[in-house]
Amino acid sequence: MPDMYVSVPYDANGAEGINNKPVNSEPVAGTIPRGGHPAYDIPDTAEGYDKAKAELKNPLEASEENLEKGKALYEIYCISCHGKKGDGNGYLSQAEKFEGIPSYKDRDINAGSIYHVIMHGKNLMGSHSSQLTYNERWQIIHYVENLRAEL
User: Is 110 part of any domain?
Assistant: First the structure.
């Protein structure tokens, strides 16, 4: 029984799947991904950035609770580069690890463009989509917009 010792590996979700049929080739109709929110399907292109900027709106209310949660998350994920005030003067900028981190004040951004950058990253900033849940992203955006207004 050599197959017991050296099994043939199958990638059930690969192009060939099992018996030449991918197992999860199509999502079940009417379903949404784990977490309860639809997949983000705006592409990581300049056109996608413009589309997100034009079409995406923050679905969360700008409540004190959401601002506080957004601030706490900002202090974990964003402050080291973007700074306490959102001026691009965070610790990594001060230590000259990264240069040219923009101030929120100088950027033509809105909730949709910020969400797009969190999802895909931009320039030196990588994607943070895997570290943050759907609601956490929007909470951070509330806080960033608040910081931007103060600048």
Answer: yes
